């Protein structure tokens, strides 16, 4: 007698979750990691090219803020749409296409004839960048063994964060010699990675099981995981595609409290990360630091966030998501307040590094790991996509707000005060409204939140 669909699904997911981390896992992970790093690099070109763009097009601080925010407007749209598309049509193809899209519009930006055209291309590029973030982290969360999920998702966020100091370091060498447009030439490289993804990545096993494509899922698990007996899927009908990936799930009674908290934290995290990365070189330059040194200081300060993201994976497996999120956000806010009280070079670097270590590093990476595992498989990418979209709301608002603050010649302390306050508020939200996911499979998380006896993600879709 052939195994039932539910039994086959359970067997496949058990093998997937309990597997060793194989060479095949590593190849898939490195491929998506490269694409995610390049996504971070392209996003964080703003701070590097902004001084040159201002000079080329004779921009005011307000106009420069609009340029910075155009990217995040596109990312907001891309993140919100891509999550739903991925939950309905799979992870592999949408992920590959998003990388190709942001590379193509990098090429268009090279030849932008006017400031208006540059803003338009940057916004369109943002759609691909925001979409990539919405799809890649659920993809990682769904194929890696459970005990590696937290560390590998946060390490992917670290790879993304490496894009910021890398952009600053590359800009130091490239912009003075070749101009800001040369950075967009470099940003066309991801098209190669996108094509490679399309040709080599497998589809998410959990997505296939939700579509009742047991044979396809079994073949991927057998090629991915060592040991165990391959599960033969029963012959028979293929279910019609389910209506997954709706925002209704995210705001349903069981999830509403956690969703509101995630969205609020993401707004604060986006305001911190993107506001700081967009304006820090210019703020340092206004304080008397020459342009090359401002790029160098920015690279050092933002590199601390990478270290925080790498350590986050180990901390969240040991002490949990809630404590890491709440503590890191609050500490980041306090260091921002201290940062604003000094202009001494050593203190600026140390306090800035500590603020980003806890803020964009520990807290930011943990927040994405948490958002990528909280929701059921049918809505996971939608959940992550909307979380990423709210992050872009913060990125959309903060560069414009900072532009007006600087245009008004306000105290430099006000610049850092804003970042400190939003970080502390995010920490409070994390401590009071986070569901602890440590030590659970994604199906167990769904089961505990909804109170259902059987994990919903193990049940195949029905027509």
UniProtKB/TrEMBL annotation:
InterPro entries from the UniProt entry: MFS, MFS_dom, MFS_trans_sf, Sugar_transporter_CS
Protein location: Cell membrane
Major site of localization recorded for this protein: membrane
Domain of life per record: Bacteria
Membrane-topology descriptor: Multi-pass membrane protein
Pfam families: MFS_1
Domain Major facilitator superfamily (MFS) profile positions: 28-438
Residues passing through the membrane, by range: 28-54, 66-86, 93-113, 119-140, 152-174, 180-201, 255-275, 295-316, 323-341, 347-371, 383-407, 413-435
Keywords: Membrane, Transmembrane, Transmembrane helix, Transport
A GO term for molecular function: transmembrane transporter activity
A GO-annotated cellular component: plasma membrane
PANTHER family, sorted: SYNAPTIC VESICLE GLYCOPROTEIN 2
Protein name listed in UniProt: MFS transporter
Species assigned in the record: Amycolatopsis carbonis
Taxonomic lineage from the root: Bacteria, Bacillati, Actinomycetota, Actinomycetes, Pseudonocardiales
């Amino acid at each position: 007698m052939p195994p039932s669909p539910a039994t086959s699904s359970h067997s496949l997911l058990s093998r997937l979750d309990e597997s060793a981390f194989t060479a095949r896992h590593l190849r898939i992970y490195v491929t998506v990691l490269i694409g995610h790093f390049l996504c971070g690099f392209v996003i964080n070109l703003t701070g590097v090219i902004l001084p040159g763009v201002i000079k080329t097009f004779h921009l005011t601080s307000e106009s420069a803020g609009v340029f910075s925010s155009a990217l995040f407007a596109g990312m907001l749209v891309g993140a919100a749409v891509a999550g739903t598309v991925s939950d309905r049509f799979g992870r592999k193809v949408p992920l590959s296409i998003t990388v190709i899209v942001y590379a193509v519009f990098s090429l268009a930006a090279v030849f932008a004839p006017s400031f208006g055209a540059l803003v338009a291309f940057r916004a369109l590029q943002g759609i691909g960048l925001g979409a990539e973030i919405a799809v890649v982290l659920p993809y990682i969360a769904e194929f890696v063994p459970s005990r590696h999920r937290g560390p590998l998702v946060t390490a992917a966020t670290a790879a993304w964060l490496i894009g910021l100091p890398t952009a600053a370091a590359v800009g130091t060498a490239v912009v003075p010699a070749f101009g800001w447009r040369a950075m967009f030439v470099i940003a066309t490289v991801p098209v190669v990675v996108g094509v490679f993804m399309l040709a080599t990545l497998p589809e998410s096993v959990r997505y296939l099981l939700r579509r009742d494509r047991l044979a396809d899922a079994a073949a991927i698990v057998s090629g991915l995981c060592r040991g165990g007996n391959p599960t033969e899927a029963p012959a028979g009908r293929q279910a019609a595609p389910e209506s997954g990936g709706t925002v209704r799930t995210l705001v349903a009674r069981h999830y509403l409290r956690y969703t509101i908290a995630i969205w609020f934290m993401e707004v604060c995290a986006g305001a911190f990360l993107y506001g700081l990365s967009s304006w820090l070189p210019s703020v340092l330059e206004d304080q008397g630091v020459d342009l090359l040194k401002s790029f160098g200081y920015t690279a050092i300060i933002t590199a601390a966030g990478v270290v925080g993201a790498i350590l986050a994976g180990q901390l969240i497996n040991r002490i949990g998501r809630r404590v890491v999120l709440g503590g890191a956000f609050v500490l980041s806010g306090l260091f921002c307040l201290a940062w604003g009280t000094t202009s001494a070079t050593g203190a600026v670097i140390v306090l800035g590094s500590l603020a980003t270590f806890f803020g964009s590093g520990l807290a930011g990476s943990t927040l994405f790991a948490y958002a990528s595992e909280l929701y059921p498989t049918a809505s996971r990418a939608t959940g992550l996509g909307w979380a990423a979209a709210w992050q872009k709301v913060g990125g959309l608002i903060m560069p414009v707000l900072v532009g007006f603050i600087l245009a008004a010649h306000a105290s430099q302390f006000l610049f850092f005060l804003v970042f400190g306050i939003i970080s502390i508020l995010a920490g409070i939200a994390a401590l009071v409204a986070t569901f602890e996911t440590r030590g659970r499979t994604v199906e167990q998380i769904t089961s505990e939140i909804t109170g259902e006896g059987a994990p919903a993600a193990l049940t195949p879709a029905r027509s």
